[in-house]
Amino acid sequence: MMMKTLSRRALLIAACAVAAPALAHDYRVGDLVIDHPWARATVPGQKAGGAFLTIENRGGQADRLLSAAAPTERVGRTEMHSMRMEGNVMRMREIDAIDIPAGQTVTLKPGGLHLMFMGLTAPLKAGEKLPVVLTFERSGTITVEVHVQAASAASAKNPDGDSHHKH
Length: 167
Prior knowledge:
Low-confidence stretches: 10-23, 155-167
CATH superfamily: PCu(A)C copper chaperone
CATH class: Mainly Beta
CATH topology: Immunoglobulin-like
Largest sheet: 11 strands, mixed
Distance between the termini: 68 Å
Number of helices: 2
Number of strands: 11
Helix content: 10-25%
Structural class: alpha+beta
């Protein structure tokens, strides 16, 4: 009886260990933890879309996000952008890098820092996943899966921002 219980527990633990990475939506590279990469679905004809995520630096040294790249058959180019208010006008600008201070978390979100997919060849559809290669100055390179969410789901989850991108 004891052996059957142990065998079942071992089987359950092994199954959880195998399933956990498939359910995870965070990534680790060096001292960085990248959490919940996501994008809003786009509509036909829309040529740009934003992607968002959180980067936590658990190390003692600062790092920098130097670049992001999505597959070129889907995205003409991937840029890093900042958004800020200048007077009564929201300005979006391409930036060269995003600083990730030691021991801090940087959130890329609607209305702030974000990744921008320019020259979309097809709409981003809810439920799909888009691989994006992130390159950091210290920690190196990692590929994350950006989960595309329906616009209404993304808005409900992220009430603090808006992803309407205007240049």
